[in-house]
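Follow-up to my post from last week.
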Amino acid sequence: MAPHFLELLLFATYAELRAERARSYLGLLWWLIEPAMNMAVYYLVFARILHAGGDDYVAFLLVGLTLWQWFKSSVSHGGHAIWIQLGLVRQVKLPVRLFPAVQVLADTVKFLYILGVLFGILWLMGYAPNPAYLALPVVLLIELVFAAGAAYLVAATVPFVPDLRFVIEQVLQVLMFLSGVVFALDVVPEPLRRWFALNPIVVLIDAGRGILLHARWPDASALLRAGAISLALYALGVWLIARLTPRYVKLPT
Amino acid sequence: MSDTLIALHNVGVAFNARLRLGAPRFWALEDVSLTLRRGQRLGVIGRNGAGKSTLLRTLAGILAPDRGRIERAPVACQLLSLSVGFLPHLSGRDNAVLSGLMLGLRRREIVRRLPAIREFSELGDFFEQPISSYSTGMLMRLGFSVAMQVEPEILLIDEVLAVGDADFQEKSGAALRARIHGGTTVVFVSHGDAQIRQVCDTAVWIEHGRSVMQGGVDEVLRAYHAAPHPAAG
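User reply:
Got it. Predicted complex:
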């Protein structure tokens, strides 16, 4: 990454977070309140009403949702980014992937705050820190690459088909249920499970739960596969944006 | 030829008229050829809708040609753009850094120039306040002060020669004239003959997306005004 792009990415992310904080009364607190409210809803529906899961369910849900929401907000914010910034794209010559990258990075900063709180909650619940925590950075790095890749792909296409905006949230919702976020995928029959394992989110959430709740080291080959898929998606996203860049400027206003 | 910084050969640029598959394209530039030499101050004249602004954005490298060919020497070429990327809730200082980065400056360059920006924009303590609290005049002063920090080898100017209220217009106009006549290569789009004569040493005439003529300012202006005026397309 060129040093100028990196400087621009970091400062634009800082500016984005700063502006977001200034836009509401509670500012930074929303970074925690919003996911907390979201988790409360799922807890109410799945644990209290549907009686899903066992003793571990609350912790299971917290870890799953924390990792999922990072991915989800990265894709939905990043996915809109080029379309929203078309005015700027017409005005100056910039690497267009800056815009989704800023959104993904901003959501990553927020995620790290939430992760800190998650650690605290888990420790209070009796899930102590353990040596397998050392594998956590690898899991998070793969998720970052996957989220950025997915965000780039969506961001690249939305300017041409703005109607996609209405579909993305629904697709993400379905993907959430297919990713084992709120209930375990044990119910999936064996022949199908191989296909589910191709979804990096399934592997990453499973690895995250293993580390945080059961002091279990992640399955290296599954992580490697998820990493390879994520990298491929990321490369595809970068390539597609670069390929389409000359055409964004020529879209009707 | 070594002095030629940019050469356009029969360049055409098309836009999508509507957001639909197979929608017809609209050719804002049909066939433009011109050369820009180092130190030249080229005026672009033509009626509304002739494609002058599209031409500037093509020269800036924002728009890629859909036909024809562009040769360019490896020099920085930039449109004078005010308030690029400004965010309302950020301070004048933060916006100056953000905008400077977007215009291609490195972080340390823009940080080094912050005192000069603050000084030139006459914002005083407002420099640290969110720009959502600024008046239109203050915003223009900040925008202009930041834009002037970028010093490309080729400066592209679309009509704007001065901004702000009366006092600042004089100051910003003087700063820009100093830049223009300080040896920078300039491409200047304008409606006004007087401004073209004042700024430029050569001119190119664009009509319906085609370059009709390039040459000395007087010669091109005379031909332009002698031509019958068809309705602007």
